Amino acid sequence: MTGLGAPNPVAITCFFVFIAVTLGITYWAARRTKTTSEFYAAGHSITGFQNGLALAGDYMSAASFLGIAGMVSLSGFDGLIYSTGWLVGWPVVLFLIAEPLRNLGKYTFADVVAYRLAHVPIRVCAAIGTLAVVVVYLIAQMVGAGNLIRMMFGLTYEQAIVVVGVVMIAYVLFGGMIATTWVQIVKAVLLVGGAFILTVLVLAQFSFSPIALFSAAAAKYGDAVLAPGKLVSNPWDAISLGLALMFGTAGLPHILMRFYTVPDAKAARTSVFYATAFIGFFYLLTFVLGFGAMVLVGHDAIRAVDPGGNMAAPLLAEVVGGSGFLGFIAAVAFATILAVVAGLTLSGAAALSHDLWVHVFRHGHADDKEQLRVARAATLVLGVLAITLGILFKGQNVAFMVGLAFAIAASANFPALFLSMFWRGFTTAGAVASMTTGTGAALLLIYLSPTIQIDVLKNTAAIFPLKNPALVTVPLSFAVGILVSLLRPEAKAAVGFDEVESRALLGVKH
Amino acid sequence: MPEPREQDIARLAARRWRIALCLTAAMLAVYFGFILLIAFAKPLMARPLSGGLTLGILLGVLVIVAAWGLTFVYVWWANGRYDAELARLARPGAPQ
Fold first, then answer.
1. Contact A214/B67, CB-based, under 8 Å?
2. Does residue B58 sit within a domain?
3. How much is the pLDDT for A301?
4. A-to-B residue pairs, Cβ atoms closer than 8 angstroms
């Protein structure tokens, strides 16, 4: 018998402490947020280590904590494919993106793409790509939040959505990037710390030997749980998802935006190093949490609460640590969702205000006060949109939306960003073609894929065979960008590349 | 005729991209190698090594360790030779 779903005094206490602390941080941050540089980039005051934690906080969503632990607990080894897949994008961010992005841009990744190209078309396309990723990711997070909180705290779905939306708007609207960063740091420490304590409590029952835990899992459900099963029956599906995770991480607007919060490129480098360390450590813990839930909670008890397995980690917490620890883990999961939606909303607001309002409608002529006002209005609009979408999508199957967000980021944002920094011959027309093709193809192919046609619309067959479109759309977006650039060369853009190359290395001119 | 400093910047930029692309290719090879082994060598991945530890689980852990290792290699190179070269190019006395 589980206490999940009944009001848990520890969960409610932990949750209110978290809200009180983070709103306190927001009050402190609000007094330090007077310019756009502070609102979007925390005044470049965050250290590499702090930003490493904040990146980990932005990235480790409830989907990875609850979803992966659940997947491992139900399908064993196959779930581990996801644990590793979610990490491998980070080295790519470090090698290809972090340092030149920090040196070339100001607040958004469009700053970098538009550096030597025509601002208006680039910023419009980049804003569309950013908003597509942000909206799809927000829907996934909000619906997840509604279901999760309903199950854990006994609130209704709509109440849960409104609470998450209102608190998140408060963080971003008043505290901007300073508050968002510190909320991410608090959340990352709580999440990695909570998962670590849970791991220790599980391993204590197996004389601190993960191997003994794996043996116990095999003894309970057969050797098959320790070996590849039917998940990778089609390797192309796994490779396509892998490509989306690998290059999508390097195209997620809320992740890219974090690199502007540090003072220089070296700190950007350091921050990805720490982020990779924390995120990798966390995913190693999910190996133990997943198999621990399989052995100590069991398939039937996990499925009884949620057929998708999402409650495996909280149930495990209850078995090894009692209802008090369950309450703590539930509050951590809530904090996790709050922090991720705050980061997403801030990056969406930057696209609306910095890219569209300032550079497209006002052609760069807007004073700091006006920019800040528009950024805050955009935050409010996106926050209300997130609440509305969360309620509209109630009861919908949105599990595919995180994969879709990564596919759009990998095909719409990453190729244009990479080519603009890497290739002299890249042109405005090429970038526009690459970004629109990437966004359009990702949306179209996911609609035609089994993910929507079979899982959501309940049709018997799908026109496009792959569950995630990245295997087609990432190469397509690169090919279109290169081809269009070759067909319509742009002399001014080629000349500007010398400055891009120098500034990508050295930063602002001395 | 480009000036020597511009040539140095172009050369260092080319070297950084070369190293970055090689390390990216290594990460791709490790992860997709893991996926292909899972897809095409299921019995091999199911082989028990010691108790409940199968080769598949060990390789899964090693993918994460490889990601750490590759980021360490890059940061080690960048903090050492790359930063030294950048500092030389950014010195105010350097020819503009």
1. no
2. yes
3. 93
4. 153
